Amino acid sequence: MGREVSESCIDGLLTEMVSSYCNRFYSNTPELAARRIEAIGYQVGHQLSERYTMERPRFTDHLEAIKFICKDFWSELFKKQIDNLKTNHRGTFVLQDNKFRWLSRMSGDPSVENGTQDPESKAAQAMSMYLYFPCGIIRGALSNLGIPCAVSADISSLPACSFVIRIKV
Amino acid sequence: MAPVAPRSGDAIFASVEHVNAELFTLTYGAIVRQLLTDLEEVEEVNKQLDQMGYNIGVRLIDEFLAKSNVSRCVDFKETADVIAKVGFKMFLGVGASVTNWDADGTCCSIVLGDNPLVDFVELPDTCQGLYYCNILSGVVRGALEMVSMKTEVTWVRDMLRGDDAFELQVKLLKQVPEEYPYKDDE
Question: Could you give the C-alpha distances from B100 to A50, B136, B168, in angstroms and in order?
C-alpha cells in the first residue's frame, strides 16, 4: 500500500484553498475564484489519472474510461466506488456518490455566516465553490484519457452528490 | 477524574482516517503552481502559503489537543518536542526531531528527514526563492499562537534547495498570558 496521511490534512488544505480563493484573492469575482479552483482540480486529476493508468491498456471507448473513473479512480481517492452510473448513450454520464466524503466532512465556517445574507445561502455558496475542485479532478482525469468534457455537480439530494459529465463531440 | 495518559504520535496516526498521500501531495503541488500563476511574485506566494498554513494551524490545534491528550507543556522545550514527535506524526505520518537549542531555550530547530509534501517535486529554475513548504511553517506558527505562544518560524534547510533535510527554526517571541473573556463574578 502506498503512503498515507491523515484525512485532516487534505480536509484542511482544501478548505483553506477554497477560502483563500473565494475570500482573499478573488473575493469580488466568484466566477474567477471558481475557475481557479477548478483548474487546481484539473491539474490533480490529470496527474492522478496518468499515474493510475500507466500499466493499463488503452480504453477502447468512452464507457470503459468512465467505468474506470467510477471504480478504480474513485477507490484510490475515496476508498469507495461511485454508487450509481447513468447515461443517455449520447455522451452524458451521471455519476452518483451516495455519501460524498468531502461534503460529509465539510463544516461551515462560522465567520462567513455573520453577513447580511442568510447562513443557508452562504453555506450553499461555499459548498458549490468547494465542488469545483472534484469537478476539475474528473475533467482532468478524463482529459488525460483523451476525452474532452464538461463536468458539473448536483447536490439537490445531500449527502449524495452527482457529477454530470458531458463529453464534447 | 484521573488524567488521561497522553498518546503517542504513532498511536494517534494509526487511529485516524487516512487518505492516499498522492492526492494530498499533488493537490498541494497544484495549489502552489496556481498561486505562482495568479500572484506572479515568488515572494507573494511564500507569504500566501504561510498565511494559508497559519489559518490551517489555528484550526488543527483543536484536533491535536483533543486526540493527543497532552496536558499543559511545562516549557517551550516540551512544546517543541510534542510538536515534532506527536503533531507531525499524527497528521503527516512522519516524525520529526528537535535540535539546535539556543542557550536560553527559546529557539530550536525541527528537522524533517522525510516530508510527504515534496514527493515528486522538483523546482524549476524560475522558482528560485520559493519556499515550497512554507505552508508547514505557517501551520506551526498558527497552532502555537492558539496556545498563547507567539513564534517566528523560518526555513534553515530545504531539500528542494539541495540541503540534506528540512529544518524549521522555531523562535519563541513571547508567551502571551491567557486572557479570559469573562469575569469571575459573571
Answer: 42, 19, 11
